[in-house]
């Protein structure tokens, strides 16, 4: 009698416990430069709980990134680093007006997407520098009311300038500026959007602020959990939570430059081009939420590495989609090139909608497929060369030769 085939993980609803763990990572307040809430507060305790005794956690002086190392000190082993970045794009206080407006910059947000949204401001205690406090109850505003807007803004022909954005804390009465300054608010203080992750209307979807890039960190943590239970025999894996990606990949560059992995994989969100409004004329490649994780070709990525990932996924029917980039992947996959050392690299990701807004939207199938795809890839690498594992020479000697192609 034939047995019923069990659905693979990516075809199922993500277990509630796993979904709540993902939410915990995504909720960590970790604006650029202050990422320790996620890396040290959430993921480091998890790493320390699940790691075998022989594994080690590395920390760094200039950033709050961390690395869980499966074979510390064993530099002769072929190593693969998989990187998620903990930093979230943020607003910053620019200046304080006499009327109580706290003028802010828009960083990597479109100004028009910010109006009216609740935010959290983190400010140091002026009497105890280094001690941060949370200020809630404010919203981002620009025009105040339609009654004060220009005709072009009413019709939509004119947008909102970054210099028009301010934080409204409802300050009133006498000496409004002094009231704010007494709170310790000053230029440079970070502000993040206040929107928790919620399940979406459509099955297996979810939305909220900062899928970028708590999702990559979640993937790294889940892979660490998997391989801690059943470790690889030959490959050294560096499970990495980086910082400062949103302003130039500086955290991953510093960490990768210090540890110099042979293989480097950036784990980050990608775009759902198929559903993105107004992209028809740009004729983007097809990439859609809910159809599997993405692999980015082009830029400095390794085609030999891609072939290994694709074969591993095809063998297990793990859904993936190919994306392309020109000069720059836009992810931590660039860390080796930016740090100036030799590594085979690529970028894997999750197609999401509304990136860099308060309502980023994803699909659990893509996350689970990416985890399964990387697990399969790492295990296949570990079995190569008659169970001795992939070597550095494998990468050196397997660059595609277009002078050896077959003519169709």
Supply database-style keywords.
single chain; Aminopeptidase; 2 domains; 6-stranded antiparallel β-barrel; Elongation Factor Tu (Ef-tu), domain 3
Structure notes:
28% of the residues lie in helices and 25% in strands. With 408 residues, the protein is α+β, with helices and mostly antiparallel strands. It has two domains: 9-88 and 210-395, Aminopeptidase (3-Layer(aba) Sandwich), CATH 3.40.630; 91-193, Elongation Factor Tu (Ef-tu), domain 3 (Beta Barrel), CATH 2.40.30. Strands 1-2-12-3-13-16-14-15 form an eight-stranded mixed β-sheet, with helices on both faces. A hairpin with a 6-residue loop joins strand 1 and strand 2. Helix 2 runs parallel beside helix 5, helix 5 crosses helix 9 (364-387) and helix 7 (303-315) crosses helix 9 (364-387). The longest helix has 24 residues, at 364-387. It starts with 15 loop residues before the first helix and ends in a 12-residue tail after the last helix. The relative contact order is 0.17.
């Amino acid at each position: 009698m034939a047995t019923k085939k069990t659905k693979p993980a990516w075809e199922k609803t993500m277990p509630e416990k796993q979904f709540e763990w993902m939410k915990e990572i995504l909720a960590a307040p970790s604006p650029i430069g202050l990422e320790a809430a996620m890396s040290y507060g959430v993921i480091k305790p998890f790493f320390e709980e699940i790691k075998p005794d022989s594994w080690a956690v590395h920390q760094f002086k200039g950033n709050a990134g961390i690395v869980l190392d499966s074979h510390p000190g064993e530099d002769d082993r072929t190593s693969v680093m998989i990187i998620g970045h903990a930093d979230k794009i943020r607003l910053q206080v620019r200046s304080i007006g006499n009327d109580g407006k706290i003028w802010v910059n828009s960083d990597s947000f479109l100004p028009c997407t910010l109006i009216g949204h609740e935010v959290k401001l983190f400010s140091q205690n002026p009497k105890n520098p280094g001690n941060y406090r949370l200020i809630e109850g404010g919203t981002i505003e620009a025009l105040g009311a339609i009654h004060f807007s220009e005709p072009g803004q009413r019709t939509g022909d004119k947008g909102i300038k970054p210099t028009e954005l301010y934080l409204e804390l409802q300050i009133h009465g006498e000496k409004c500026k002094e009231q704010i300054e007494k709170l310790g608010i000053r230029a440079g203080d970070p502000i993040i959007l206040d929107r928790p992750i919620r399940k979406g209307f459509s099955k297996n979807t979810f939305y909220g602020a900062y899928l970028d890039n708590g999702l990559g960190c979640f993937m790294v943590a889940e892979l660490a959990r998997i391989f801690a239970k059943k470790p690889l025999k030959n490959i050294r894996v560096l499970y990495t939570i980086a910082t400062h990606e949103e302003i130039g990949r500086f955290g991953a560059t510093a960490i990768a430059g210090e540890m110099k992995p042979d293989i480097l994989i950036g784990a980050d969100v990608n775009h759902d081009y198929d559903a993105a409004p107004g992209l028809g004329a740009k004729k983007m490649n097809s990439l859609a939420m809910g159809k599997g994780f993405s692999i980015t070709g082009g830029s400095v990525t390794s085609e030999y590495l891609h072939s290994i990932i694709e074969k591993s996924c095809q063998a297990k029917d793990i859904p993936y989609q190919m994306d392309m980039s020109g000069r720059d992947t836009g992810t931590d996959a660039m860390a080796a090139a930016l740090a100036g050392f030799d590594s085979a690299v690529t970028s894997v990701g999750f197609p999401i909608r509304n990136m860099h807004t308060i309502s980023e939207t994803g699909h659990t199938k893509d996350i689970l497929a990416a985890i399964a795809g990387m697990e399969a890839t790492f295990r296949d690498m570990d079995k190569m060369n008659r169970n001795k594992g992939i070597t550095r020479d494998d990468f050196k000697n397997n660059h595609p030769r277009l002078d050896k192609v077959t003519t169709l």
